[in-house]
Amino acid sequence: MPRPSKPLINRDAAVQASLEIIDTEGLDAFSLPRLAEQLGVRAPSLYHHFRDKHELLAEVALRVAGPSRRPRVKPGPDWPDYLIGISLNFRQSVLRHRNAAPLLVTHLPRVRFVSVQEDCASFLSASGVPTELQVRILEGVQSLVVGAVLMEASQPPHSRSSAAGHVSPDTQPHLSRALSANHLTPRRLFETRLRDFLYGAVRDHAGAADEPTRR
Prior knowledge:
Blueprint: H1 11-25, H2 32-39, H3 53-65, H4 79-95, H5 103-106, H6 110-126, H7 131-153, H8 173-181, H9 186-214
Helix pairs in contact: 1-2, 1-3, 4-7, 4-9, 6-7, 7-9
Protein name: TetR family transcriptional regulator
Keywords: DNA-binding, Repressor, Transcription, Transcription regulation
Region (Disordered): 156-179
């Protein structure tokens, strides 16, 4: 049988089909035989494009994380808006593919985080943020963002009142009242949490710098 003049699959098509399977059937349902079936090819043919399943899922994780779009914020006193903008873009991209979110922990190449952090460190420097504070900011934002997004992705989309899942006023009266008093959407709550951390880190750093003066 002659070879087809055009390959039946390519890397991009395989990654997209993998993501579609995970989106519709769940991460546990994904396998190379299942992907081959989806693409209409034999499973061994996938090894012409990927070394193994791990390499394929790393590409899927990169697609879930989305492109690193830079917010239109100039260096200066509003530098927190730059980090918040990047974080919101990441959240939006991941929540489009909730079933695939765990791949961010298991398969997303570390170089992706490093490249984003280098860009942010450059922006912080240009904004006059003290160098000794930058790692605290970058690591804190990464932990907050990835943790918050993974938790949100593990649950069905929810409104303000269901942010903590099912809560009964009879057995959880204090939490129930707190949820009723919350007027922030999940997106706004995510943004506010980041903003509180960033400005709090700056205030704490400034206070520590002033401490010897008070003595």
